[in-house]
Here is the input.
Amino acid sequence: MGFVDYEVDGQVGIITINRPKALNALNSEVLDDLEGVLNGVDLDVIRCLIITGAGEKSFVAGADIAQMSTLSIEEAAAFSKKGNDLFRRIETLPIPVIAAVNGFALGGGCEISMSCDIRLCSENAVFGQPEVGLGITPGFGGTQRLARIVGPGKAKQIIYTARNIKAAEAYRIGLVNEVYPIEELMPQAKKMAKTIAKNAPIAVRASKKAINDGLEVGMDEAIVIEEKLFGSCFETEDQRYGMAFFLDKNKDKVKEPFKNC
Ligand code: DAK
Here is the structure.
């Protein structure tokens, strides 16, 4: 695909936003290509996705300011919807998605990383929501996801001041899960993705859905969501095999891969 590459490594899919001349900024073409790549992910095979940016300087430097600068009100709303639909799709994909943030993650770049389940970043990563300095609000879910991840107080500070934050601060406030030297970022992201892929896929998917859906409702409703998804794992081949393997207590036996059924 033009601005987005896709590579498969066993049960892990790696999506690379590849527009390094513009620091991987998101224009409509990049969003279309990303949607095309997501459409092609084989969910019967792939158990975890990684999203990263091409090069060592930038993950995604935001929505394309040059393209956005001339949008009419209607076009801006359409652009925002395109991004929001896509980011929501990433967030609700049945499989986990890891953002491997290899540099600038500003505006739409920070927002796409926040639509992923887990954020790993390199030491040179820079996060921020600079939109109010451009005369707009965050438009790809930043006001909502940042507040949910780091809490409303920190989110408001980051958004109102439009101040960029470095990897160490992003880690301290819980915006990223881990920070690595740049050369270790992709190996570590793949290692984590492969660890996830080894676990029972039905249970991993159900866990993702339980966390995501549960966060949108009150605790009484949330716990019922968990009960139902917990129940849905039973009588699956993976649940039977996983529990039987534990109960067998045969130390010489090698655990077979889960079959996803
Ligand atoms: N858009 C377009 N081009 C960009 C870009 C961006 N966001 N970021 C960088 N580039 C381009 C630069 O223009 C430059 O292009 P050439 O001049 O070489 O042609 C090239 O990438 C290299 O950038 P620099 O020369 O600036 O590189 P530096 O190392 O000096 O600086 C930087 C790196 C990341 C600090 C700087 O490029 C920068 O500040 N970039 C802009 C970052 C930013 O403000 N991002 C947030 C964008 S706003 C909405 C929908 C969506 C959104 C909001 C509302 N609705 C419709 C409601 C989302 C908004 C955003 O994401």
